[in-house]
Amino acid sequence: PQTKLPKVGTTIFTVMSQLAAEHGAVNLGQGFPDFAVPDRLIEELDKAMRAGHNQYAAMTGVPALRQAIARKTERVYGHKPDADAEITVTSGATEAIFNAVAAVVRPGEEVVVLDPCYDSYEPAIDLAGARAVHVPLDPRTFAPDWAKVRAAIGPKTRMLMINSPHNPSGAMLSAADMEQIAALLRDTGIFLLSDEVYEHIVFDGARHESALRYPELRERAFVVSSFGKTYHCTGWKIGYCIAPPALSAEFRKVHQYNVFCTFNPAQHAFAAMLDAEPEHYERLGAFYQSKRDRFREQLASTRLTPLPVPGGYFQLVDYSAVSDLDDLAFCRWLTTEKGVAAIPLSPFYETPPAGQRLARLCFAKNEATLDAAIERLQKL
Ligand code: PMP
Ligand code: GLN
């Protein structure tokens, strides 16, 4: 039969987590914390369920949560989106990305993505009948080359997708990058999808350059975030999209027939958390920075070479001193023979750079988990 995603297999995250489980490997592959969510969040969830918030939520999201997101956005980025017209709560960032593409990208159009990019982008583009145009980031610094992006933009381009802090590299876009994007998109009908799921996980005093800080960008942007990353609960699958009223209206047409609404009790719990403990997201960068620093110090005792990590919770390592295997083969070998699961980078590319020897390790883990992984990595 004619199918729509002939090139798509099972995602690398599922493949590597299954392999890790089969072989009893320490799983630093798929990105998820292995520590507890804040106690207060569990209490708020329990309270919401007992208070009877167990039926369909408002289609666009629980009003208290949309208002809390608006206040948080103003507090962090100095811009307050309209809670009613501009914020939609979704089943994770994944749903938000899918909806944004489905809402505005038409068959035959093009979406520019920067490789390596998160693996859900291209299938969403393909299902819209559009084509992903891949522009490589620098293979070492993962910085964009805006001249290359400009060259990739043409009359069919409908959207540009960006992701900062970046998965898998942790690279961050600068204010100068955001100005470049504004200049590129000025006087075009091109929308911006800004994937900001790691917005609060930034290090060394850096500032996250949300598209929401830039009036020229936010008037054409779908800005996507995820509570899974911010509250250590990737399995709850709650995220949101901030977009101008006309774009949010289109986005909601997809959302209402995709899932209609998302898990009601958790929305009440996040609303309470955002207001009661802004310190949680304000301190998230420091919380992860200490994990990053400790992990990098430990990696110095292995033959893996860590690349810089400006944000996010992934550490890229160059393994060329250990092995000449390609990254898929290396990550399989590391998992099955050496007991540590990692994620190869090539699934994030249309055309992986020749000879690239990088693997991604997730450090959103307890010290004991990271210690166990390091003990094994020291034997490489
Ligand atoms: N975008 C990026 C860059 C991600 O890393 C992730 C999560 N791994 C997502 C989107 C999806 O987020 P969610 O789990 O909230 O759907
Ligand atoms: N975003 C997570 C990662 O990059 C995985 C999400 C998933 O498994 N779908 O590892």
Automatic annotation (TrEMBL):
Keywords: Aminotransferase, Pyridoxal phosphate, Transferase. This is Pyridoxal phosphate-dependent aminotransferase. InterPro entries: Aminotransferase_I/II_large, Kynurenine-oxoglutarate_AT, PyrdxlP-dep_Trfase, PyrdxlP-dep_Trfase_major, PyrdxlP-dep_Trfase_small. Its cofactor is pyridoxal 5'-phosphate. GO terms for molecular function: kynurenine-oxoglutarate transaminase activity; pyridoxal phosphate binding. It comes from Luteimonas gilva. PANTHER family: FI04487P. The keyword Transferase applies. Pfam families: Aminotran_1_2 (PF00155). The keyword rRNA-binding does not apply. Residues 26-377 form the Aminotransferase class I/classII large domain. Belongs to the class-I pyridoxal-phosphate-dependent aminotransferase family. One of its GO terms (cellular component) is cytoplasm.
